[in-house]
Each structure stands twice: as structure tokens, then as C-alpha cells.
Amino acid sequence: MAVKITDTVLRDAHQSLIATRMRTEDMLPICEQLDKIGYWSLEMWGGATFDACIRFLKEDPWERLRKLREALPNTRLQMLLRGQNLLGYRHYADDVVRAFIDRAADNGMDIFRIFDAMNDTRNLEVSIESVNKANKHAQGAICYTTSPVHTTEYFVSLARQMQDMGCHSIAIKDMAGLLTPAVTTQLVTALVEVLEVPVFLHSHATSGLASICQYQAVECGAAGIDTAISAFSGGTSHPPTESMVAAFARTPHDSGLDLEALQKIGFYFREVRKKYHQFESEFTGLDTRVQVNQVPGGMISNLSNQLKEQGALSRMNEVLEEIPRVRKELGYPPLVTPTSQIVGTQAVLNVLTGERYKTITNEVKLYLQGRYGKALGEISPQVRHMAIGNEEVIDCRPADLLEDEMANLRKEIGLLARNEEDVLTYAMFPDLGHDFLEQRSNGTLVPEPLEPIDANGNNKQHITTDFNITMHGETYHIQLTGKGYATSHRIPYYLSVDGVPEELLVEPLNEIQTEEEAGTGRAVSGKPPRARKPGDVTTSMPGTIVEVLVEVGDKVKAGAPVLITEAMKMETEIQAPVSGEVVAIYVSKGESVTPDETLIEIQ
């Protein structure tokens, strides 16, 4: 049987390697050639593309879907859907799920790969039902992971449940690249033996084993595999399409795809990738550590960025060691959106605060209440008590507790929404979506800038924070990566010195005035910062203010929430360090903040 090929170059490949930054304008010119290949499908929507489109690219993701549908008339379009999470980071009411799938199908989507981060099939029910109602292909995805409780028998049982719920095919979603050839043989053989629907394998190449696993899977009866055109393959992406087509050529599983035509497409995307050089990460290559820490490549990239902003990139290994501990304490959830962010952010907080679970994100609290679904493993009772005390843990389908939302969402977004698709954009990301729709209405949508490339194809980066210094005859390459906020008369600067992360503490000892300022009494460096007081409210990580919960004059008790911040797409309540009166608030909603900055004063 010919192997079915799904190419991920328009979605997961660039999500894995260049932070989901490929623009629609770089996809459309190659669509005519892609459409002639004869892929089983092209994955081009879902996952983080929706977020990236409105957050960074200032594109309407629905318009991308429509344009690609028109440009690829002969090819099935495929998306990744997070079950009851859809494309956001929380559970949505059933009416939102139904509306989203209806509009996606009507705009041209053919195949919906549906998964739940907890592998809780209750969170897949409405999505599968809605896809079938739209007469589209529902593909149930098993989130593959390893732990003492994740066995072959468990995964087979999970797949049979999905088949019985109406899935037309089953995908093994190996998002971290954990599969080995031996395990692949065992798992695929077991699935093919009991299922009546075809089995597909999606595996990331992070550990270097994915190509072998995919070949072995097809030999054992898998119907299809996910690959990425070579220019966007390997590392935390997927095995190269051209290589896998060549591997199966002249075998019983020959894909029949034209290798030379694929190579031409690869040359096109090789040039496209150069445009996005600023989003390349050093953590997207081959990394066998994933076999130990189970951290997907995209998650490592996010952790890298967060630690870099904190000036703590040198603590990456500590975080990677902490992640398995947190995962065990939370009952061994698979590390995929949103549980990867839930576990990863908590691990970062545990390391950087110096005290495990001193600060706990809101998402961890919701997770421990059962609001993301049921964990397969046993959750640490100590961690649960630290997070939610004696609060009730739900045991029903989480969405059963949610009331219909669409009517209120339409009312809230009002005239900014031109159609139902706009309402759903707002539903996925209320603040971000509102800003996007408002900017579109005002004609002020401006995508983030791309750093230019010179005529020789080299990156042109004119950054004032990147320079050389010479001291005592030695030259050092300095990159300023961030600035903290002063404490005890010292200002922290985060540097890279010849590639090594460093923290520089600057203590102003004198004030210097320019000639223009002489006589005004205003010093360039300003007054030395005051010492930290017990009632100063700070955050443990760089982030964004989501909500200010108090006003000046309010009386608060120690431990009461006064702010909500967002970092790594996770929200954290910042609590009052002391009881007293709020005497000053220095931040507002939407502002970016860093550790050691005084956000609120309580006396």
C-alpha cells in the first residue's frame, strides 16, 4: 500500500523552527506547485498559527484559510485542533466549539486532527461530533508520552475509544520525538491489529529517531506519515519529505510523489527561510536530551526566551531537571499545549524563586481542580493542597460547567466583528483579538518588522545593544539582552559576553549633568533607587499585566491577590506580601514588567 504523505511546511514545520512566523504572502507563490504534488494532505492551520497571525503578523487567520483553500483546489487542507481548547488556552463552551468547527469547515478545512493534552476523551466529544456533522474527516490524535502509567495497552484503549466516538483515522502524535523504533513497532502493530480505521504517525525529529520510526511504522501497517519539505525539516520539526519519499521509492509503499518536483519546492522554501532569520533558535536542532527530560523542542525555545529575558539562561539545565519533577507531581500529563506551558512555566518559577511552588500559576490551580480533565497518574496531595487548599476537585467533563458563550461574545465585540469568524477570533484571544479587530477597523495593522538581508544573503542587523569592547588589550563581544529594575541602589543588566550569559550590577555613585541640563537640577542618571520595602509587590518573571485587582486606598491582607500577570501564555496571581493599605500603583493593564520592579506599594 502506498504511504500517504502529509506535509507540515505550512504549519508545524515553521512553528517548530521559526516561531510560527511564516506569512501568507510567502505561502501563496508556491501553492500551485504544492497542489500538483499529490499529497494526502497539507497541514496549514491550527496549533499556534492563529495566535501568531493576530499577535505578530497582523493577518486575519480566517483569510489565510480562504486564500490557501482557493490556491490549493486539489489538495486536502488539514488543521490541528486542541479539542475543547480549540486554538486558545482554556476550555470553551460547547456552542463555541460547534461554531468554530462549522466556520472552519465552511471556509475550506477538510481534515481536523483533534487531540486533548490530557488524553481525556471527554474533551474530544463535541469536536468529533461537530466535524462529523460537517461531513469532514475527524482524525483522533493520541498524545504519546512515556511514564509509569502510559503503556501500550493504555494507548490502544484510547484509540479504540476515539474510533468508537466517530474518528475516521487515528494519529500517534509524538510531539516531543520520544518514540524509538522498537516502541514504534510494538505500538503501531498493536493499533493496526485492533482498529478498523487507518493509523498515521506524526513525530518530531528532535532526538534524531523520527525517520527510522516512520519507516518502521509504515512497515508495520501505518497508512501515513507527517513530513516537512527539507528546508524546514529536522531538529524540532519533522523528517524531510524528499528523504522519506526516496526511502519508500521502489518498495511496496512507494508514495508515487515526484522527487524532483519536491526538490524544487524545497529550493523555494530555502530562500523563504532566510527572511525569518531573526526567529531562528539555537534550541531547534538535534537534541537527544528529549529522551530524558521529554521536553518538546518548541517548549525548549519558549523556556530559552523566558530565561534570557530574566538574565538566567545559564539556569536552563536546572529547569530541564525540574520539569520531570513537576510533571510527576501533576500526574504525568503529556507535554503538549497547553500542559507543556503549565508544567514548564511552573518549573521556571520553582527554579527562579528558589522555593518550589512559592508562586503557583492560575493554570496550575485550574489543572489541580480538574478543570483541564483527568490526569492519568496520581497527583501529589501536598502540591494540590499548596495550590488550592481544600477547594473541591471536579470529576465531571470540565465543559459541562460552562454556559453558552457565543451570544455574550457577539455582544462584547459589537460592531468590530464583521462576521461570525471575527467573533470567534475574539473568543480565542479576547484582549489580543479585540486589539487586532480594532486596528483592522482603524487601518493601523502593522506586522512586526523583519530584519533585512543584504545583497549577499547575509543578515543585516544594526543593533545598538550589540558591540565589542576592548580592555587591557583583550576584545570582548557584548550583547545587551535585558535590563532589570533597581533594588538596593543597584541596577541589573543582562549581558552575553562572548556568548556566555552574565549579570552586571551597576551601582550609581554620582549624578552627571549635561550642559543643557545644568541649572535645571535634573540629573541624567536620576536619583539612586530607594531600597526595597517589605510591602513592595514584585513579580518572579518578566511578563505582562493582565489585570490590576486593587485600587489606591484599598485595605488588603497578606496573601490576597493584587495583580494578575501573564508569562509564557500562563497567568499568575501576584499576592500581597504584607497586610496593609495600597498607597501606590505603578502599572496598568497591558504593561510589560520585569522581576525586581516595584509594581504596587503596600504600607
The major beta sheet can be summarized as: 8 strands, parallel, barrel
Q: What proportion strand?
A: 15-25%
Overall pLDDT score:
89
Low-confidence residue ranges: 460-464, 511-529
Question: How many strands in all?
Answer: 20
Number of helices: 21
Roughly what percent helix? 25-40%
Rg to the nearest angstrom? 25 Å
Strand order of the largest sheet: 1-2-3-4-5-6-7-8
Structural features, described:
The protein is an alpha/beta fold and 603 residues long. It is 35% helix and 17% strand. It contains 21 helices and 20 strands. The strands form 4 sheets. An 8-stranded parallel beta barrel has the order 1-2-3-4-5-6-7-8, surrounded by 5 helices. A 4-stranded antiparallel β-sheet has the order 9-10-11-12. α10 (210-219) links the parallel β7 and β8. α9 (181-194) runs parallel beside α10 (210-219). The longest helix is centred in the middle third of the chain and has 17 residues, at 259-275. The chain is globular and about 75 Å long. The N and C termini lie far apart (74 Å).
